[in-house]
Amino acid sequence: MRILLVDDETEFVATLAERLSFRNMEVDYATKAAEAIELAARKTYDLAVLDMKMPGISGIELKAMLEKQCPGMKYIFLTGHGSEEDYRTGSSEASGYLVKPINIDILVARIKKALEAK
Amino acid sequence: MTIIDRIKPDFLRSRNITTGPFRQMFNYSRIWQWAMLLTSLVTLVPLVLITAIDYNVTQQSIESENLLRTLRVGSNAKRTISSFLSERLAALTFVVRDKSHEELNDPAKLAVLLDNLRESYGGFVDLGVINSDGVQTTYVGPYSLQGKDYSDQDWCTEVQDKGFHISDVFLGFRKVPHLVIAVKHTLPDGSCYILRTALDTVRFNELLTTLELGGRGDAFLVNREGVIQTPTRYQKDIFENISYTIPEFSENTEIREDKNEQGEPVIVCSSYIPDSPYILMIIKHKNDMMQSWHQTRLKLILFLAVSISVIILVIFAFSTYLVNNMYLADERRLMILHEMEYSNKLASIGRLAAGVAHEINNPLAIINEKAGLIKDLFTYTDTYAADTRIVGLIDSVLSSVERCGIITKRLLGFARHMEVTLESISIGTVINEVLTFLNKEAEYRNISVKVDVAPNIPEFQCDRGKLQQIFLNIVNNAFSAMDVGGKLTITVHPDPPDHIVVTITDNGCGMTEEELGKIYEPFYSTKTKTGGTGLGLSITYGLVQELGGKIKVTSTKGEGTTFSIQLPLHPPQKAEK
């Protein structure tokens, strides 16, 4: 289970990556969109957890870019800006979303659920 | 409350707010006073002016009419008296010309002549012939005046000079009021004699007493010295001097205003009777003459008073009605302004809250992850697995982070403008769904919940989630306010034509006026010690507005609280949201 985490908060994304790795997941993280695209070019990931709002780019835009490189990859969005209704992007585009601060158990459950549907 | 307090218009009851953002547009008491004053002036001044003019014109007209009438009476009386005297003077003149001196000196013939004159004219008492020496040579009549010498009397001289004489009324030898008419006749030989007669004053007086004068009017004759010649009704006795000034000679009938001895205003009409020593005097009391005017005047004043009263009453009622309606319109304006200001305030606080929530969210997420990592380290590595105290502490940190997370989510939700998702809902079902969350607590605390939905409430389009959140927040608050054994009543009834009203009543601790004024403000909570965030009712307020409804609350400290939520049966148009 290979997961790509993308968030501009290094402290947050690094810690989350480490926590997920405790849960038997192979996790890489990026703090910039360019890094994420580079990582995705080098490795294949099953799922990407994307922050909705990063400097200069939104999670949706990054998703569109990654989809070209990694077709079939699943996505979960994170946001610090609001609750679910604010960032409802539609079930066809994303598997889900979570509002910071996130509950790790819910995130893991979402990841598993998304990958099961694959 | 007194009757005055009950009928007092709204604008006089309330205090006038003249400063601040919610000041009233006008000083309504002053507008009311000015409206009353100006309208009264505009209507009453012309009315009073016209009435005053009419009063004066009518009074002058009646006075003038009275004077003219008196003048006419005076003129007529003058002609009558003048005719009376001139007739008798002419009769005597005719006699002296028709009869010879010898015939007139024959007592038998003179007696026949006297009888004829009495029969023809009346009033003749006696008849005598006086020679040029002034001695009465022949006399027929009731007295013994044969041979009486009149040569020393003024009238005798006057007849010699003037040809005739009409005397004052006097008593003479007879001690009976009478007057004398004498005519001189000159014979062809140049000698002359005088035919003299005495007239009783009975017919003379009748001429004056039969005049229609009305009231205390009086008509009588005076001589040139002002001695009363005929009986009067209200003046002095005969032969006494009158108390009025003798008018200056005039050929015309004159009229003037004067005052009697009592100081009362009188009209004095006077007229010199030609070829006689008499002056006709007619005295009329002005008040008697104006009697009809006084009655008319009373009616006029009464009419004016009633008119003014009615006008003032109408002006009062109309001004009060208008100004009160203006005041109420202004009050409604202020109320809407208050509501807008309140909504704006809530929106501003919401934006502020969203900003704060966002800023806090990221560090909170880091704390969450760091604490989570520490826990993971304890959980997934054997080294620390046994230290349950540390795990407990980390759980406590994570629990606090989760609590903060809930607050920030609510803050963001409070500020967010959510899309309304409409679906057909049954209000009873939504309420029951909400109550299922609280059934356990109700059972545990022995709180009785009664739901009464009117049977004629139709299903309607609304956002189920928002409605649930609204009811959940209010019912949650009600539960918090109630002690064990509390009572919660939820009723739903229609509010024609196109609304329903949901009323949620608890018998909890209630709120003071001050608390009521703050309940929709974010972070205002009376449950801070038990975990209240103070956002529940703020969000509820926003949600009800989003659904196009209205929320009202009434509460009495120690007795309970009632929330009334009015909801539209038809969803509001997008533009109105």
Please give a structural write-up:
The complex is a heterodimer of chains A (118) and B (577). By secondary structure, chain A is α/β, with parallel strands linked by helices. Chain A has helices at 10-22, 33-42, 59-69, 104-116; strands at residues 2-6, 26-30, 47-51, 53-54, 57-58, 74-79, 96-99. In chain A, strand 1 (2-6), helix 1 (10-22) and strand 2 (26-30) form a beta-alpha-beta unit. The longest helix of chain A has 13 residues, at 10-22. Chain A starts with a strand and ends with a helix. The relative contact order of chain A is 0.18. Chain B has 577 residues and is α+β, with helices and mostly antiparallel strands. Chain B has 15 helices and 16 strands. Chain B has helices spanning 3-7, 10-13, 28-98, 101-105, 107-120, 154-162, 202-209, 286-289, 291-380, 382-385, 388-415, 427-444, 464-481, 513-516, 536-546, and strands spanning 124-131, 136-140, 164-166, 178-186, 192-200, 218-223, 254-259, 265-272, 278-285, 423-425, 448-453, 460-462, 487-495, 499-506, 550-556, 560-568. In chain B, strands 2-1-5-4-3 form a five-stranded antiparallel β-sheet, with helices on both faces. Chain B has a five-stranded mixed β-sheet with strand order 11-13-14-16-15, with helices on one face. A four-stranded antiparallel β-sheet of chain B has the order 6-9-8-7. The longest helix of chain B has 90 residues, at 291-380. Chain A: The modification 4-aspartylphosphate is found at residue 51. Chain A: GO terms for molecular function: phosphorelay response regulator activity; transcription cis-regulatory region binding. Chain A: InterPro entries: CheY-like_superfamily, Sig_transdc_resp-reg_receiver, WalR-like. Chain A: Keywords: DNA-binding, Phosphoprotein, Two-component regulatory system.
